[in-house]
Amino acid sequence: MTARIYRPSKTAMQSGVANTRKWVVEYDLSEPRTVEPLMGWTSSGDTRQQLKLRFDTEAEAVAYCERNGIPYQVFETKTSPRRAISYSDNFAFKRRDAWTH
């Protein structure tokens, strides 16, 4: 069973970058999920898929996996550049577009 090491991206419901700075170690599925016939719930006998470990740095996450003999894959996330904008730029003389309401 391999583990994935990644930094989660921000969700579509937030504009900030909260909960995206830590690295996550998450196990892959070792057996497929099944649908229980009585209630229709999805279940699995593998409890490791419920485990998410958070680390401050990528090196700490890799060291944890190597120390415990867990095979892992590191997934790098592409960060989008943050545009620095200012409220006062809306009223600047060098503004190209006309100010309209």
TrEMBL record:
Keywords: Electron transport, Membrane, Respiratory chain, Transit peptide, Transport
GO cellular component entries: membrane
InterPro entries in the record: NADH_UbQ_FeS_4_mit-like, NDUFS4-like_sf
One GO-annotated biological process of the protein: electron transport chain
Pfam families: NDUS4 (PF04800)
Compartments in which it is found: Membrane
Protein name in the entry: ETC complex I subunit
